[in-house]
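Sample A.
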Amino acid sequence: MNELGICGWLSRDGKFYKCGESKHNLLASKLEKDLELKIFDEEKSIYLHDTALLETLGFVKFTQSTYGLIGESYDNQFVLFFGKRFSYEQRKWMEENISKMSPRQKSECRQRLILGY
C-alpha cells in the first residue's frame, strides 16, 4: 500500500500529470503553456492562470499534503475538485488507479464517486 499516495492534476480527458508535493502551481503553469489553455473571467476581467485556470477547467488536484493537522485528523482534502461532476474519463481513471492512492485519498475518492460528483 502506498502511504504517500499520488500527487498531481487529472484532466477532464482522464490524463494524469504527476508532480511533487507543493509543486502543483509550477505544473499548472507548465500545463497552461504546453496545452495552450486559456479562460477569460468576465466577472474579474482577467485571464485565469495556473491553479485557478486548471480548477475552472475541471481538473482534479490530488495532494499528499498533511498541512492542516488538527489533533489526529486533517482539516484539508487530499482530492480537490471544484466542478459539478467528474467526467467519465476522470471517474474511470480514479477507479483504475485507486490502489495507488493513500488511505485518505482512497476514502475521499470513493465517497465522491459514490455520491456521483
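Sample B.
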Amino acid sequence: MVMMHQEGIGLRARVAELTRHPNTKAIAVGVATVALAPVILPLVKPVLKTTIKSGVTWYEKTKSALAETAESLADIAAEAKAEVQTETQNKALPPS
C-alpha cells in the first residue's frame, strides 16, 4: 500500500478511473463469467438439460400439430374443389 502512495495515485482513484470507461462493466461481466463457469455450470446443468428437453418436446409436438393442420386444410380444400366441380357439372347438364 505504501508503494501506491509513492506512485501518486491510489487504488480508489484507479478503480474510479476504470469505472468511468464505458466497456469496463462488459469486460468485468465477461471475466466473471469465464472465471465462474466451471463452478456454476455443473450446478445448473440439470436445469439446463430439463429446459432443453422441454424445448425439444415442445418443438416436436408443434411440428406434428402443424403437419396435422396442413393436412386438414388440404383435405378441406380438396373437398371444396370437388364440390365446385360437381356444382359446375350439374349446371352444365340440362335438367331431365
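B remarks: The two ends are 113 Å apart (CA to CA). The chain is about 90% helix and 0% strand.
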